[in-house]
Write a structure and sequence with these properties.
Radius of gyration: 28 Å
Distance between the termini: 72 Å
Number of strands: 3
Structural class: alpha+beta
Strand order of the largest sheet: 2-1-3
Order of helices and strands: EEHEH
Helix content: 40-55%
Number of domains: 2
Strand content: 15-25%
């Protein structure tokens, strides 16, 4: 979670471990100065993004390997001749 405070044309941001802690910090900030606008924004889990990327990468590798196997199976037999 990221808490962002907009005050005087300057943005202040800090990462928070959870939405609950973000909302608590937001509440504490607005108690200090009610004119400050605060916003809690969920942050994407980097590990999940990396895992998804590598999952797509492995799918591509699997497709390439499958295509290679099919191409090998589709080749004419080197020991066979058309006369037989």
């Amino acid at each position: 979670m990221i808490v962002s405070a907009l005050a005087g044309g300057v943005d202040y941001t800090t990462e928070m471990p959870s939405m609950k802690s973000c909302l608590e910090a937001r509440s504490a900030i607005t108690k200090q100065d009610p004119t400050i606008k605060t916003l809690c924004v969920p942050k994407a889990d980097e590990k999940a993004e990396i895992k998804e990327f590598f999952g797509m990468f492995m799918d591509i590798i699997d497709q390439i390997r499958e295509k290679e196997v099919l191409e090998r199976l589709d080749r004419p037999c080197p020991d066979c001749t058309e006369e037989e």
